[in-house]
Write a structure and sequence with these properties.
Largest sheet: 4 strands, antiparallel
Helix content: 10-25%
Shape: globular
Order of helices and strands: HEEEE
Distance between the termini: 22 Å
Length: 80
């Protein structure tokens, strides 16, 4: 099976095109507690999804469009 992924940076340099103001505010606030943006999933024809993780990579969350952190997303990610 051929890998169709493009070589894109996990965190785009133009975040304002993918995250709204509420998500950006939450991101800046949680960075004070050791969380950081892990990657932005950018599926074709769908809304981008911002995934954040704590400093130990032991917890992940999705930054919802209203700026809330969804820790109960049910997604499984490959280990780093």
């Amino acid at each position: 099976m051929e890998n169709k992924r493009h070589k894109e940076d996990p965190v785009p340099s133009n975040l304002d095109q993918f995250l709204n103001q509420m998500q950006m505010m939450t991101l800046h606030k949680i960075e004070e507690f050791g969380w950081h943006l892990w990657f932005v999933r950018r599926p074709l024809f769908q809304e981008a999804m911002a995934v954040v993780t704590d400093s130990a990579h032991s917890a992940t969350a999705i930054l919802e469009s209203d700026g809330t952190m969804n820790k109960n997303h049910g997604m499984v990610f490959r280990p780093q």
